[in-house]
TrEMBL record:
<dbReference type="Pfam" id="PF13732">
    <property type="entry name" value="DrrA1-3_C"/>
</dbReference>
<feature type="domain" description="ABC transporter">
    <location>
        <begin position="2"/>
        <end position="237"/>
    </location>
</feature>
<dbReference type="InterPro" id="IPR003593">
    <property type="entry name" value="AAA+_ATPase"/>
</dbReference>
<dbReference type="Pfam" id="PF00005">
    <property type="entry name" value="ABC_tran"/>
</dbReference>
<keyword id="KW-0813">Transport</keyword>
<protein>
    <submittedName>
        <fullName>ATP-binding cassette domain-containing protein</fullName>
    </submittedName>
</protein>
<dbReference type="InterPro" id="IPR017871">
    <property type="entry name" value="ABC_transporter-like_CS"/>
</dbReference>
<dbReference type="GO" id="GO:0005524">
    <property type="term" value="F:ATP binding"/>
</dbReference>
<dbReference type="InterPro" id="IPR027417">
    <property type="entry name" value="P-loop_NTPase"/>
</dbReference>
<keyword id="KW-0067">ATP-binding</keyword>
<dbReference type="InterPro" id="IPR025302">
    <property type="entry name" value="DrrA1/2-like_C"/>
</dbReference>
<keyword id="KW-0547">Nucleotide-binding</keyword>
<dbReference type="GO" id="GO:0016887">
    <property type="term" value="F:ATP hydrolysis activity"/>
</dbReference>
<dbReference type="InterPro" id="IPR003439">
    <property type="entry name" value="ABC_transporter-like_ATP-bd"/>
</dbReference>
<comment type="similarity">
    <text>Belongs to the ABC transporter superfamily.</text>
</comment>
Length: 315
């Protein structure tokens, strides 16, 4: 669906070059949901806009749904759907009118547009909004309506730019269900940008992590997390001195990473938290030390990012 080679975009800002995307390679296969994850300003939207023909690359090439990005941008546009961050419906217009007029832009007849529109609304749990003003819909409903618009010409590939930004947790989870459903029922390939780790984790078959305009990691969410060594064990003690004594003991355990103590909290890494914990408790017990709190944390995508870049995705 997408093969990009050396894709690059340099902006000019106050006479100075800004290398937003520094020559990236990426491949997206048919039927995949690929999450493009990175912090603010990493180059996600710039990449997306280039792949959607909204922005000309300053270097590199790409083929999107079989069409060359530079030689056949119209071919690309006919074959893709694009759901922008800003949304595409006017508040005062009726949802049904917006769908039909959008479909007409693709040369779809009115009756066919209405048939497809109603079927898509139904699929996205919006069956009763045809005669409602777009501005009267909830945030989640309006995002789903945007997706209906992006799918009206039945593209095989759809780009979603930050799909759940601004939605409450329940609407986000509901939107994710619908996005997965589209792929499962219709086989639509989905390429989405996000700076939310949970969104990338919950939705994507494969994740590309971008930072400073370059791809720094790629893989399934599980493989990326497995690449980060070990689980983190956090133990709380009554005071700093006890935590320091516990740190000496934890540090001598097999496979344990250099322990860190902050106030009365000890944190260290082990290859497997579940199997290490009984050993930790037994060793601490022999020294007469008892933690007052314990937490075992599996690696998150933020740990992946931290390992790759030395910074947190949240920074
Ligand atoms: N029109 C422009 N002119 C100059 N610099 C730009 C322009 N658009 C984006 N940039 C810069 O390019 C870099 C990448 O921006 P981009 O919007 O692609 O990042 P992003 O990962 O999509 O971020 P966000 O999550 O905030 O949308 C940033 O440093 C941004 O300031």
């Amino acid at each position: 669906m997408i093969v990009a080679k050396g894709l690059k975009r340099t902006y000019k800002s106050r006479g100075k070059p800004v290398e937003a995307v520094r020559g990236i390679d990426l491949t997206v296969r048919e039927g995949e949901i690929v999450g493009f994850l990175g912090p603010n300003g990493a180059g996600k939207t710039t990449t997306l806009k280039m792949l959607c023909t909204l922005l000309e690359p300053t270097g590199g090439d790409a083929e999107v749904v079989g069409c060359d990005l530079r030689a056949d941008p119209v071919g690309v546009r006919r074959r893709i759907g694009y759901v922008s961050q800003a949304g595409s419906t006017a508040s005062n217009a009726l949802a049904g009118e917006e769908i039909v007029s959008h479909a007409r832009l693709y040369g779809i007849g009115k009756a066919e547009a209405e048939r497809r529109g109603r079927a898509l609304l139904d699929a996205l749990d919006l069956a009763d909004v045809w005669d409602r003003k777009c501005g009267s819909l909830s945030g989640g409903q309006r995002r789903r309506l945007d997706i209906v618009m992006g799918l009206i010409h039945e593209p095989r590939l759809v780009f979603l730019d930050e799909p759940s930004t601004g939605l409450d947790p329940q609407s986000r989870a509901n939107l994710w269900d619908h996005i997965r459903g589209l792929r499962d029922r219709m086989g639509t390939t989905i390429f989405l940008t996000t700076h939310y780790m949970d969104e990338a984790d919950a939705l994507s078959d494969r994740i590309l992590v971008i930072d400073h305009g370059a791809i720094v990691a790629e893989g399934t969410p599980a493989a990326l997390k497995a690449g980060v060594s070990g689980d983190t064990i956090t133990l709380s003690f009554a005071d700093h001195e006890t935590a320091e004594r516990a740190a000496d003991i934890a540090g001598s355990l097999d496979g344990a990473d250099t322990p860190e103590v902050e106030d009365a909290v000890l944190r260290f890494r082990v290859p497997n938290g579940g199997t290490a914990l009984p050993q930790v408790f037994s060793a601490l017990g022999q020294a007469g030390l008892t933690p007052i709190g314990v937490e075992v944390k599996r690696p998150t995508l933020d740990d992946v990012f931290l390992t790759m870049t030395g910074r947190s995705l949240r920074d």
